[in-house]
Amino acid sequence: DHKSLKYIFTQRELNIRQRRWLELLKDYNTNIQYHPRKANVVADALSRKSGMIAGIKVEEEIIRDLERLDIKLYVRGQHGYWASLRVEPDLIFRIKE
Fold it and tell me: What is 27-81 written as a DSSP string?
C-alpha cells in the first residue's frame, strides 16, 4: 500500500523510502492519485498471482535449449510463441551447472 505517496510533495520530513520515491518522481510532471485496494481489484489480483506467466517471442534455438533442460513449454500463436514457464530451484541449479 503506497497511500503515503499521495502526500509526498507536502510532507516536511521524509523517511529514506519516501526520499527515494521523491528523487525518482522529481523529473516528471506527476499527479499521484490513491486507489484503495477494493477499487483496483484487477491489478491487485494480478500482482498476487503465483508463479510466472509471460508472453515471450523466442527463436527455435532457444526452444531446443529449453527442451534439453526438461522445461515444459506450451506453444501457441502464429507470429510468435506464448510460453508458460515456472522456474523451480532445481532448474536454477541445472542452469548454473
Answer: TS--------GGG-HHHHHHHT--S-EEE----HHHHHHHHHTT-------SSS-
- What confidence tens digit (pLDDT) does each residue in 30-75 have? 777 776 666 666 665 666 554 444 445 556 777 777 777 766 665 5
For residues 41 and 55, membership in a common domain is answered with no
Same domain, yes or no: 58 and 86 = yes
Residues 60 and 40 in one domain: no
Model pLDDT for residues 73-90, shown as the tens digit of each residue: 655 555 444 555 565 667
Range of the domain at 71: 50-97
Question: Do residues 51 and 72 make contact, with C-beta atoms less than 8 angstroms apart?
Answer: no
Contacts (Cβ under 8 Å, ≥6 apart) of 55: 80, 82, 83
